[in-house]
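Hi R.,

As promised on Friday, here is the backbone we talked about, encoded as structure tokens. Could you run it through your design pipeline when you get a chance and send me back a sequence?
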């Protein structure tokens, strides 16, 4: 019996072409959509062009549409799914899917750094490799993964690290969980399972703010309004804030606006270590939630999913910390 793999094309560089002036533009149709690929005899590909968008056009509402389609695919008997996606927001969509799909079905997100007609285009190779991973029994129960450049990365931690390099996707601190070599899918480590929230809607007005030397209260004050549902802060170092921001942070908390803190550092984990004015120890005592291991954009997705599921208070804190 063949393994059915659902292919969901969403657009991005992997679906674009370079014009005569060297500018990269979307095609009216994804060139991968009707492509004939050599895959194993026991693999059947079912292709749907669900979007055709540059990844900066991706929204949580569209991420939810993808999640719902993949959840439906399991009931339809699909073995796995592959999502092709632009790289700018690929990591956010991958995490959204990982947080909202409770199935053990393999789900792989991939993309390209070079358009379909550029010299050295990586799209077709990444696409084929993603299909291999999605159709491998070893991928069952691994959660959503990102496959690029022969590496398998967990959706939870992978991030784009270079604007143009084909080896842009990296998992800071922990490294990839697997590799693809000579046609074999090899997993070398696993990550702890996380809570899945199969939401059917998404809220809006969840924001991301980056801390900097000499930061004052102005940005935080501007966000302190009834429509604000939550804020993620990329704090300094291990999780510290300039002292001038403390009154504004407290007022946000007084208005029951959840505040989630991560580090703006590329590597490491935000933790309440320093006990001085603005240090992480005091921030945690105020009620700011420390999110360990995620970067700012991913923590925002996790906060958005948690709030969309109706979590609040200790429930939300436990979810964000896990």
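Update: got your reply. Pasting your designed sequence below so it's all in one thread:
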């Amino acid at each position: 019996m063949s393994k059915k793999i659902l292919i969901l094309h969403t657009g991005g560089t992997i679906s674009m072409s370079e014009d005569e002036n060297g500018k990269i533009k979307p095609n009216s149709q994804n060139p991968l959509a009707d492509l004939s690929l050599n895959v194993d005899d026991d693999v059947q590909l079912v292709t749907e062009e669900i979007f055709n968008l540059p990844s900066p056009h991706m929204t949580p509402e569209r991420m939810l549409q993808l999640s719902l389609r993949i959840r439906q695919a399991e009931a339809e008997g699909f073995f796995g799914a592959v999502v092709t996606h632009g790289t700018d927001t690929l990591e956010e969509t991958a995490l959204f899917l990982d947080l909202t799909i409770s199935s053990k079905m393999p789900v792989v997100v991939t993309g390209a750094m070079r358009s379909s007609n550029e010299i050295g285009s990586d799209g077709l190779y990444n696409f084929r490799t993603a299909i291999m991973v999605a159709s491998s029994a070893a991928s069952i129960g691994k959660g959503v993964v990102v496959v690029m450049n022969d590496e398998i990365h967990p959706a939870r931690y992978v991030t784009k690290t270079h604007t143009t390099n084909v080896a842009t996707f990296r998992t800071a601190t922990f490294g990839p969980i697997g590799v693809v070599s000579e046609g074999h899918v090899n997993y070398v480590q696993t990550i702890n399972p996380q809570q899945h929230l199969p939401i059917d809607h998404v809220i809006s007005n969840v924001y991301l703010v980056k801390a900097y030397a000499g930061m004052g209260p102005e940005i935080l004050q501007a966000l302190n309004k009834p429509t604000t549902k939550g804020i993620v802060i990329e704090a300094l170092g291990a999780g510290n804030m300039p002292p001038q921001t403390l009154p504004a942070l407290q007022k946000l908390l007084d208005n029951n606006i959840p505040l989630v803190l991560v580090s703006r550092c590329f590597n490491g984990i935000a933790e309440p270590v320093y006990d001085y004015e603005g240090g992480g120890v005091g921030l945690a005592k105020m009620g700011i939630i420390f999110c360990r291991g995620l970067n700012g954009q991913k923590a925002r997705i996790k906060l958005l999913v948690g709030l969309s599921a109706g979590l609040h208070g200790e429930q939300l804190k436990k979810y964000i910390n896990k």
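One thing I noticed while checking it: The mean pLDDT is 93.

Thanks again,
M.
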